[in-house]
Amino acid sequence: MHDLIALVIAHGAWLVFGVTVAARLGVPVPAAPLLVIAGALAMGGQSGMQGAALVTFGLAIVANLLGDAAWFLAGRRHGYRVLKLLCRISISPDSCVSQSESFITRWGGASLVAAKFVPGVSIVAPPMAGALGMSGLAFVGWDVLAAAIWAALLMAVGMVFSAQIQQVLDLLSAMGVAALEALAVVIIAYLAWRTWRRRIFLRAVAMSRIDVAELWALLEGGHDPVVIDVRSDAGRAVDARRIPGAIPVELGQIKSRASGLRDLVDTTDREIVLYCNCPNEASAASAARALAELGFTRVRPLAGGLDAWVAAGYRIDTFDAPM
User: Fold this and answer.
1) Is pLDDT above 90 for 73?
2) What gap in Å lies between CA 9 and CA 98, rounded to an integer?
3) From residue 70, how far is each of 67, 124, 239 by CA, in Å?
4) Is the pTM value of this prediction over 0.85?
5) Residue 43 in contact with residue 158, Cβ under 8 Å?
6) Distance between CA 13 and CA 59 in Å, rounded?
7) What is the pLDDT of residues 287-301, one digit of tens each?
8) What is the rounded distance in angstroms from the CA atom of residue 313 to the CA atom of residue 240?
9) SS3 at position 166
């Protein structure tokens, strides 16, 4: 802990700048604690930090904007491929895309402010904003506001509690290995809890899948399956590709649209196939489970979703193309 303080004193605002850029790019480094310490040292009048509070604050904003802009441009150019890459390393990969998408579409630019304080969404919010078509000017405005609030709050905490923070740092330094062990126990317990929740979710959506070759055979064989795209409107706006004949029905609308779907299949032997482009077909499987609970017997999610269909080279069309 004393080494951390010594680093801030020695390198000041530029250390905060470099670490914050790295953190916004996804490197697991302690940007927030450095800002708190910088605020505490500035309030305490520490040598090397006097008069540096405003410089540190400004560089923290620039660092946030640089790191977030890189992900924003990646999302604008590569869309959901970037999001899926980030979500693969997320602690909740099955729901990462859908939760982040819902967060951004519900709150718009203001979500960039809230995302700074929401673990798991912070790094995904900028590329999601890019993928969903937020303008560059709007992104810069909201991101600068978000960075300013984030940096100001962290530095203010350091300034207000400068004496107490020094006491805590001294205590942690005195505890040495015991402090690290306590932190490790907390982290392990949190990871175990999230792993347990994910196992419960995966068991809830465990069911038979239909693969892309079998679905293609049904379509070509004249069996006329009812194919449903359960992605959100925002998701389809970013990626308008669809399996030929697919009906757009968002996951949240599945139950309300059930009666209409029943009219399509009750008098025939048609199967319902649902797809998304999320890890483990999470949304499609959740929709299939909801229909099964309503009495539908021939309903399956598509293994691999839209990505697997495209990768297999089967024909696709788009939602803005003629039916």
Assistant:
1) yes
2) 42
3) 5, 12, 21
4) no
5) yes
6) 7
7) 999 998 898 988 999
8) 17
9) helix
